Amino acid sequence: MAKKQQTISMIDTFAEFKELKNIDRTTLISVIEEAFRSVLTKMFGTDENYDVIINPDKGDFEIWRNREVVPDGELEDPNLQLTLTEAKKIDEDYEVGEEVTDEVHFADFGRRAVLNLRQALSTKILELQKDSLYNKYKDRIGQIVAAEVYQIWKKELLLLDDEENELILPKTEQIPGDFFRKNETLRAVVVKVDNQNNNPKIILSRTSNLFMQRLFELEVPEIYDGLITIKRIARIPGERAKVAVESYDDRIDPVGACVGMKGARIHGIVRELRNENIDVINYTANTALFIQRALSPAKISSIKINEEDKKAEVYLRPEEVSLAIGKGGLNIKLASMLTEYTIDVFRDIDIDGEDIYLDEFADEIESWVIEALKNIGCYTAKSVLNKNRQELIDKADLEEDTVDEVLAVLQAEFEDEE
Question: What does the pLDDT average to over 237-246?
């Protein structure tokens, strides 16, 4: 009984190990059997004549050995064979050539065998733990996780998730101004999962565009539900960002939904990103109009697009140039990143005196006509007047009478001024 009790306590230990390492019961049983067979093979050269039976309900196990009965004096391998005399001690009916199956107690193999078993089991469970960690996080790439700061190093932070798995937030993936203390919880997005030599390494980021996108999904239900989609993001982490959004429902204002009442939704994201200023704009497939919106708050006079080279020449009134460029060049840099066009800004030297933006003629010119003119890069009255009449008809896809009416309205404005 003592030997049986010893084996049962061994299983109890394995059960505790399973709880700590978060390995499911079926897998643990398989691991235990494999560990037993590994030790048996090391001891006897083979495990083929052994049956290992694991009982998950009772939490114990049995090992049965199968041996062939041979005549006395012809025993060659005591692991595979049993003499007739020894067989008859078990049962008088055994004859030469028959197979004898008897239960063996692993503890009888000695302390070394038990230690080898524990070592084999520990090695296998460690491998399973690493596989489990890798499989868990490789499916979570692009998702936000919350983790606790465990160690603070110069080049990275070591974090622990709720199951005490180790995650890494490199310095290069931290927002400038990020400051965390030990035991503090932070949020980041999983961007990479390496598994070199079965040693999983989970890399997090707070500077990735995906992190900002996931924050918007958390704060804006319409994005999470798919009514609004984030088309593009341009970020200079910790400084400023531009986000282009589009609504699939004409009744929903995508910019308003993202900002929220009195900025309630966007403020939560800004705080998480260390007060990173975020401009939310309406996305459009029209390149000229998209570049105009991306350069907001600057108002442009006209624009020339080179689609082949992905370049845009933007002309602005002198007082608008500094707004387009922005402090430290951030605005134009982000606009270029967002639109994927190289944007060059020029002062509009063709303007004689004051110019007027087309939006100010909304009472005299229909809005769809103004949008058609903007679509060909004309945002001010003089940028329209400087174009050839036929060019306005062809490029803006407007009727001749409509173009003539527009030109008459714009010309009259400047004639009145004179």
Answer: 95
Count CB-CB contacts under 10 A for residue 343: 20
Burial class (CB in 10 A: 0-12, 13-18, 19+), 282: middle
DSSP per position, 238-264: TTEEEEEEEESSTTS-HHHHHH-GGGH
Question: Residue 175: left (phi > 0), alpha (psi -120 to 50), or beta?
Answer: beta
Tell me the CA distances in angstroms from 273 to 210, 236, 396, one per residue in order.
13, 11, 42
Q: What CATH number was assigned to the domain covering residues 284-349?
A: 3.30.300.20
Per-residue pLDDT tens over the stretch 33-68: 888 888 888 888 888 888 888 776 666 778 888 999
CATH architecture of structural domain 2-135: 2-Layer Sandwich (3.30)
| Per-residue pLDDT reduced to its tens digit, 339-364 | 999 999 988 765 555 778 888 888 88
Contact 286, 234 (CB under 8 A): no
pTM (2 decimals)? Answer: 0.69
Domain ranges of the chain: 2-135, 148-207, 284-349, 358-417
Which 8-state DSSP code applies to residue 281? E
Q: Kindly report, residue by residue over 176-212, the tens digit of the pLDDT.
A: 989 999 999 999 999 999 888 778 899 999 999 999 9
| CATH of 148-207 given 2.40.50.140, 2.60.40.1180, 2.60.40.10, 3.20.20.140 | 2.40.50.140
